[in-house]
Amino acid sequence: MFLINPYGVLIGPGGVINTAGFVATTSNIKNSDFMAGRHNFGIAGRPDASVVNLGRITAANSGFAALVAPGVRNSGTITANLGTVALASGNTFTLDLYGDKLIQLAPRDAIAKKVVDVATGKPLSALVGNDGAIKANGGRIQLIATPRARLSIRSSIIPASSKPTRSASGPARSCLALRQPRASRRVPQPKLSGSPARSPQAARARAARAAQSG
């Protein structure tokens, strides 16, 4: 499901989206590219537009959910178990449904100095912001921005079980990728009893003392 508006997209507090795959963006796609299966969103919307989620977005297992605009903010809940969630700051991009990079930003993309929050009408404090909940058990979470905006990535809530790694693919983008493991049951560790193992050095020292005393 593609939700496109060049002036901005707002999913309100009561908004509920359930689908296999979801993209909300200010970028548009040519009819010829869409019909040919080329997910090249190469038509930029307003340079100061944003996508804001205040509601609940749920993708099916192994599905995807992405918010892509010059500025994006998630203050709601986004879920894509075993799939991918992406928040990306960019004017144009390519949607990669088969590789490990769901969103590929255009090279040399430049973001406007001021991007307006579609919900509040005020400038965004961060081009990529998350103060809501993102759930991708067994999947992947991507917060992506161009090099000029890499310091404007802000996420106040990151799953404690995730292992964050920073990676960059060429000069076009900066990406904070979080791989969230599947929930697993904790297995209790057995308690060990008895004397600790003795090292060979300690054994030789004891033998030398015994020889001297004899």
General description of the model:
The protein has helices spanning 31-35, 200-213, and strands spanning 2-4, 9-11, 16-25, 40-41, 50-53, 56-69, 71-74, 77-79, 84-89, 93-95, 103-105, 128-130, 133-135, 140-145, 153-155, 163-167, 174-179. Helix content is 9%, strand content 38%. It has two helices and 17 strands. It is mainly beta and 214 residues long. The termini are far apart. The protein is elongated and about 90 Å long. The strands form three sheets. Strands 1, 3, 6, 8, 9, 13, 14, 16 and 17 form a nine-stranded mixed beta sheet that branches. It has a five-stranded parallel beta sheet with strand order 2-5-7-12-15, with no helix packed on it.
* First and last CA, distance: 87 Å
Radius of gyration: 25 Å
Written as H for each helix and E for each strand, in order along the chain, the element string is EEEHEEEEEEEEEEEEEEH
Low-confidence stretches: 156-175, 178-197
Let me know the largest β-sheet.
9 strands, mixed
Estimate the global geometry from the Cα principal axes. Answer: elongated
User: What share of residues is helical?
Assistant: under 10%
Helical run tally: 2
Strand content: 35-45%
